[in-house]
Amino acid sequence: MSKRLTCDVVVVGAGMVGAACALYAARAGLDVIVVDRGPVAGGTTGAGEGNLLVSDKAPGPELDLALLSGRLWADLADEFGAAVEYEAKGGVVVAASPGGLAALERFADGQRTAGVLAAPVDGTDLYDLEPHLAPGLPGAVHYPQDAQVMPALAAAHLLRASGARLLTGRTVTGVPRTPDGAVRGVRTDQGDIDAPAVVNAAGTWGADIAALAGAHLPVLPRRGFVLVTEPLPRLVRHKVYAADYVADVASDSSALQTSPVVEGTAAGPVLIGASRERVGFDRAFSLPVMRALAAGATRLFPFLAGVRATRAYLGFRPYMPDHLPAIGPDPRVPGLHHACGHEGAGIGLATGTGHLIAQALTAKTPGLGQGPDLDLAPFRPGRFPADHSATDHFPAD
């Protein structure tokens, strides 16, 4: 049994969100320990594409968080250079019909009022942006603020830069509390860690950590697959996806949904998504999903029909019923903070989330001239009733 450790804050989860929470908390002057039952980026982060997107978000709290996060990611890119493979490559959202283009342009009009850069692209100029797209597409919207990082590298660099003590291979088994109900750290299978604050950054498993502390948080796993091609010259210049991807992200359906998403990477392979389905933590390989992803990608980029797919991987996105993450202090459990439930946007929203958590941990309150950069009310962890159904949530193996 390891000796008892103490710190100012324990962050549970060494994925991208946990890494960002550790970084900004440490830079706010707090002593941080990060604990994870697996390796760094061993969960949803390591199975992600590394997208930092504003293009898929309607005006509202999530878009506000994405814009804040984008500014913070740009600052970190300046600090870390090419080490995190940050690419400000922009996104192109493609319409398949004139009617779809009109709807896409209306969506972009609303985003522009919130501060998003969104430029309409007609059917001629579209092929200057992406020469290898399928012919005859009526147009698109170009989003220059969309970017990408290599998620596992980025999480590792944020953790290293934080200076936090990192304890991997440790499973959190309890969240002990004081007689007045406040957290006093975490219990692990290798000893206790004492702290007056705990940050639940456990991603898809955030409901389990919340439950250990006596709180309800309806985080559900939403499975997604990604196809990876052989390395190629940069034939896909942006993140390119069909307009129906936005509707799939916002859907409440548990059934399988696929919409074509294609993007090149700095290392050469092309990443192909996206699929979504709620099947618990089922890791079974699905050939029908692979075929659907490949078919959607070749509809957008016909040249991919002659390209070899070298592998596929899957991950579980932390889905919340209202599609907003839980960020901030839990009013039911003093000292417990949540930073989870970002679904497929966790990489992009991590920096803003970590920044806001650090502000909450250091008690920056409105009215004192040092309030948080965003209103946390829409993300409040206690917004769901305790009897909210979570029937398709199953414990991890």
Summary, kept brief:
The protein contains 9 helices and 20 strands.
Topology record:
Layout: E1 5-6, E2 9-12, H1 16-27, E3 32-36, E4 51-52, H2 61-80, E5 91-95, H3 98-113, E6 119-122, H4 126-129, E7 139-143, E8 147-148, H5 151-162, E9 165-168, E10 172-174, E11 185-188, E12 191-194, E13 198-200, H6 206-212, E14 220-229, E15 239-242, H7 244-250, E16 257-264, E17 270-276, H8 287-300, E18 309-319, E19 326-329, E20 336-340, H9 346-361
Parallel strand pairs: 1-12, 2-3, 2-13, 3-9, 5-15, 13-20
Antiparallel strand pairs: 4-8, 5-7, 6-7, 10-11, 11-12, 14-17, 14-18, 15-16, 16-17, 19-20
Helix pairs in contact: 1-5, 1-9, 2-9
Describe this structure in words.
The protein has 397 residues and is α/β, with parallel strands linked by helices. 27% of the residues lie in helices and 24% in strands. The protein is built from nine helices and 20 strands. It has helices spanning 16-27, 61-80, 98-113, 126-129, 151-162, 206-212, 244-250, 287-300, 346-361, and strands at 5-6, 9-12, 32-36, 51-52, 91-95, 119-122, 139-143, 147-148, 165-168, 172-174, 185-188, 191-194, 198-200, 220-229, 239-242, 257-264, 270-276, 309-319, 326-329, 336-340. A hairpin with a 2-residue loop joins strand 11 (185-188) and strand 12. Helix 2 packs across helix 9. Mean pLDDT is 91; it is low at 365-369 and 388-397.
What order do the SSEs take from the amino end to the carboxyl end, as H and E?
EEHEEHEHEHEEHEEEEEHEEHEEHEEEH
Gyration radius over CA: 21 Å
pLDDT < 50 runs, ≥5 residues: 365-369, 388-397
Number of helices: 9
Mean pLDDT, all residues: 91
Major beta-sheet overview: 8 strands, mixed
Please give the number of β-strands.
20
Give the termini distance in whole angstroms. 24 Å
Strand order of the largest sheet: 6-7-5-15-16-17-14-18
Global morphology: globular
Structural class category: alpha/beta
Helix proportion = 25-40%
